[in-house]
Amino acid sequence: MIDQNQLRILKTICWMGAVADAFWTLALLWPAVFVLVTGNTDLNPDLSTRLIMGIAASLMAGWTCLLIWTANNPVERRAIFLLTAFPVVAGLIIVTLIGMMNGSSSTVWIFVKCSVLACAMLYGYHTAKTIAKGGQQ
Fold first, then answer.
1. Of 116, 108, 115, 27, whose CA–CA distance to 64 is shortest?
2. Is the pTM of this model over 0.90?
3. How far apart are CA 37 and CA 55, in angstroms?
4. What average pLDDT does the segment 87-94 reach?
5. What confidence category does residue 136 fall into, taking pLDDT thresholds of 50, 70 and 90?
6. pLDDT digits (tens, 9 = 90+) for 105-125
7. Which residues are CB-neighbours of 130 under 8 A, at least 6 positions away?
8. CB–CB of 116/92 below 8 Å?
9. What is the pLDDT at residue 112?
10. How far apart are CA 112 and CA 14, in angstroms?
11. At what angle do helices 47-71 and 31-38 cross, to 10 degrees?
């Protein structure tokens, strides 16, 4: 028997990731929003940069949908938690750290958000795996 509270937590973790990804999808589609959330006032994207941002936005939108899909059955689809933590969020953490090391202190909040999200995804995977094995957390 699945603990409904644990299931609610797993679904919440999925929705946290989906909302974050949807937010970044919008920021990548509209450079003005990207500037607003990153504090990168020097951004003046040429066509190549806009195309790269469009590719990233497409991937973020896809991951948003994947996390919403996972929220419908998080125990069965628990591998998505792990894939979200590594390589997706871990990659975002690395990119943010590189930016911070190069003077972008306005992205500290992104680092914190990604760190929290990575921990939540790992917790979600562990909890879903425990439930799938028939154990209680």
1. 27
2. yes
3. 19
4. 96
5. low
6. 888 999 999 999 999 999 999
7. 136, 137
8. no
9. 97
10. 18
11. 80
Predicted local confidence at residue 39, as pLDDT = 87
**Which DSSP state fits 85?**
I
Of 81, 63, 70, the residue nearest 129 (C-alpha): 81
CA distance 15 to 121: 11
Q: Are the C-beta atoms of residues 54 and 28 closer than 8 Å to each other?
A: yes
Which amino acid does the sequence have at 77?
Answer: R
Tokens of 84: 């979200």
User: What is the rounded distance in angstroms from the CA atom of residue 62 to the CA atom of residue 85?
Assistant: 16
Mean pLDDT of the chain: 95
What does the block give as tokens for 70? 């996972």
d(CA 57, CA 27): 8
Q: Cα(26)–Cα(61) distance, rounded to whole angstroms?
A: 9
State mean pLDDT over 22-31: 97
